[in-house]
Amino acid sequence: METLTRKVKKIPPQHQDQQPGREEEMIPKPIYDNGEKGLGRLKEKVAVITGGDSGIGRAVAVAFAKEGATVAIVYLNEHEDAKKTSAELQKYGTKNVLISTDISIEKNCKKAIEQVVRQFKSIDILVNNAAVQYPQETLENITAEQLQRTFGTNIFAQFYLAKYAIPHMKDGSCIINTASVTAYKGNEQLIDYSSTKGAIVAFTRSLATSLAPKGIRVNAVAPGPVWTPLIPASFDRKKVSEFGKDILMGRPAQPVEIAPCYVFLASKESIFITGQTLHPNGGTVVNS
Q1: pLDDT band at residue 18, thresholds of 50, 70 and 90?
Q2: pLDDT tens across 191-235, in order?
Q3: pLDDT for the residue 6
Q4: Residues facing 177 on adjacent strands
Q5: 148: how many CB neighbours lie within 10 A of its CB?
Q6: Closest C-alpha among 148, 157, 169, 102 to residue 128
Q7: Alpha-carbon distance 264 to 243, whole Å?
Q8: What is the share, in percent, of the chain residues with pLDDT greater than 90?
Q9: 160 is catalytic
C-alpha cells in the first residue's frame, strides 16, 4: 500500500455543519478506488449497502461492483454524493439503485428491502454501515433526542434491515456490520456512539449463532480512524486537522483501505468465518 500512502495528503482544518456530511466538500477527497481490477468473486450477487453514498460505504460499493455484484445504495439525503457513487459503479458495468430514506425508522427499512427484492429478485449480502456520531464533552450533555437518534441509526436500523432481509436470503448469503475500534477502547467524547458500536459486536455474534443453521454468515468490521464525511461533520476544525495522527500508522485510513475486509467477508474466501470481527485500525491492539 506504499503507492496509496504517498497519495495521502495532509488534512487541513475544516468543518461541516450537518450529519452525516458531504464527501464533495472534503479536502482532500477520500480515496475510494485503487484502480485494481476485480476477480469476479461476487458475480450475480445482490448487495444492499447502507451509507453507500460516501466514505467506507462508497468504497465498499465500488469494490463490490468490481467483483460483479449488483448494488443497492441506501442513504439519507446526500443526493449528489449518491449520484457520484452510482456513476462510479456504472463504470464497472454492474446494475445499481439509489434509495434515499431514514433507516432509523422501521417502516423505511421494510420499504427499502422490498424495493430491492422487487427490482433485483433477491438479497445475498447486507452491509449495515450507516452511522452518525455527535461528540459531547460529558454524559450529561447527551440529550434523550441525541441518544435516540444515535441508537436509531447505528444499531436499531441494523436490527430492522436484517429482520426484513433475512427472509429473502439463502444458504451462502451473509450480513456484514460496521462496528468501530471505539467498541473496544471507548471514546470519552463519543459515549453513545461507542455504546452502539459495542452493541453491534454483540448483535453480530448473536445473529451469527441464530443464522448458522440457515447457512447465513454474520460478521463485522471494526475500523479505526478513517477519512470519511462523518469526521468534518462531527469535530471542530483543529481536531479534524489532527485526526488519526495518534495511531501507530500516524494517519487515518482511506476508505479504499477498509473495503477489502468487506469483499473478503462477502466472498467464499471467508466461508468458514462467522460471528467474528476484523480490525483494520492502523495498529491499535484490542481484545476481540
Answers
A1: confident
A2: 999 999 999 999 999 999 999 999 999 999 999 999 888 888 888
A3: 45
A4: 128, 220
A5: 13
A6: 157
A7: 27
A8: 83
A9: no
Q: Secondary structure of the chain in the HEC alphabet?
A: CHHHHHHCCCCCCCCCCCCCCCHHHCCCCCCCCCCCCCCCCCCCCEEEEECCCCHHHHHHHHHHHHCCCEEEEEECCCHHHHHHHHHHHHCCCCCEEEEECCCCCHHHHHHHHHHHHHHHCCCCEEEECCCCCCCCCCHHHCCHHHHHHHHHHHHHHHHHHHHHHHHHCCCCCEEEEECCCHHHHCCCCCHHHHHHHHHHHHHHHHHHHHHHHHCCEEEEECCCCECCCHHHHHCCHHHHHCCCCCCCCCCCECHHHHHHHHHHHHCHHHCCCCCCEECCCCCCCCCC
- The cell numbers describing 213, all together, are 443453521
- Which listed residue (75, 164, 193, 262) is catalytic? 193
Confidence tier at 2 by pLDDT (50, 70, 90): very low
Residue 184 CB: number of other CB atoms within 10 A? 20
Length of the chain: 288
Q: What is the rounded end-to-end Cα distance, in angstroms, of the chain?
A: 25
